[in-house]
Amino acid sequence: MRAELKTAGLHQTWPPKSNRSLILIEAVHSERHRQLRLLLDAGVNVNCQDPETGHTPLIRAMFIENARQRRAIVKTLLGYGGRVEKTDREGKTAFAWACLLGRNDVIRYLFREIHLDIGLGSIDSSGNDNLTLACASGNPTTVRLIADAFRKARIDMNRRNLNDENAIMTAHRLGFYDCVKVLVEDGYVATTMPKEVLYGEERGTSSVHARVLQQAPNRCITLPQIFSMYSDHLTNSFPRSISKR
To answer: Which structural domain range is residue 194 located in?
Structure first.
């Protein structure tokens, strides 16, 4: 085949580079470690991207369920020059996907590799920071890992995304109250919201809680705001007029 290509005057490799990239990503997805090494040794770009999703091999590695295989493949890709900070079409890095999927083993490993640019403060195309993505994972350990890293790096933990939600609001909306507890009780986020509301222990108050959070200009909830919102909520729960018979 290569001889035929040369005869035809086509100066390209076989298979085409786009196909070779997909083969590499598929090797990661299928956890074929030996094939992965062979492809990388053959010169396939370790930072190639899926043309549809923009996923790199490192990003695709975050979807591997088997923790041992996942760590082994991540280490191999990094050893061949894999870039953690490279983004896909959603603007997410491999580290961002590790946060969203709750891959704590990978997160800890990347934290130890201090020479890497992991994109701790990266923001995806929806305006989500990595703490918000960690909250969306529903994994309180992931939230603690990222919140602690944010604190050390002095990154704002109350930044809001394009839907005007910050990390604690996202966790509360999704019902991940253990993640909310980590942020509040470990002192990462300041709030005076009653615990029975904040931790989902009182039914029918989540909508009020969301409204209070959205109207707090300094992201710190005060008791007067709570009382005002609850008064409005109770007032609006009664009919404004009674129809005449």
So the answer is: 110-200
Going from the C-alpha of 225 to that of each of 52, 83, 207, the distances in angstroms are 46, 45, 14
Q: What is the DSSP string of 105-158?
A: HHHHHHHH-TTS---TT-B-TTS-BHHHHHHHHT-HHHHHHHHHHHHHHT--S-
3-state secondary structure of 129: strand
Q: Residue range 158-184: average pLDDT?
A: 95
Residues 60 and 139 in one domain: no
How many angstroms separate the CA atoms of 114 and 68, rounded?
22
Q: Enter the tokens of residue 77.
A: 């890709």
What are residue 123's phi and psi, to 5 degrees? -125, 130
Which residue, 200, 216, 232, sits at the end of a domain? 200
Give 189-237 pLDDT, tens digit per residue: 887 777 777 787 654 444 444 444 444 444 444 444 444 444 444 344 3
Beta pairing partners, 123: 129
Assess if residue 22 is contained within a domain.
yes
224 within a domain of the structure (yes/no) = no
32 and 73 assigned to the same domain: yes
Q: Among residues 166, 185, 200, which one ends one of the domains?
A: 200
* Of 98 and 233, more confident: 98
Q: What is the pLDDT of residue 195?
A: 75
**What is the mean predicted confidence (pLDDT) over 240-244?**
36
User: What are the backbone dihedrals phi and psi of residue 233, each rounded to the nearest 5 degrees, phi first?
Assistant: -60, -45
